[in-house]
Amino acid sequence: MRNLFAGCVAAALVLGLVSPSPAQEVNDEPIRDAWAPSEWGPDDKAGSVNRTTPAMVLAAVGLVKQGKVATLGKIYAQDAPFFGSRGWRLTIPGLPTGGPFGGQKLVYNDEYVATELGQVGTQFDGPGHIGVITSKGTFYYNGRYLEDADVNTYGLGPLGVEYVAKKGFVCRGVLLDAVALRGGQLPIPKENDKTDPGIVTDADIEAMVKRQGIVPIGEGDCVFLYTGHGDIWHPTDWDTYDAAEKARRVALFNSGEPGFGLSACDYMASRKIILTASDTWGTEAVGKGFGGETPQPFECHLKMMTKRGIWNLENLDFSQLVADKAYEFLFVWSPLKMKGATGSPGNPVALY
Question: Which fold is adopted by the domain 39-83+153-351?
Answer without folding.
Answer: Glucose Oxidase; domain 1 (3.50.30)
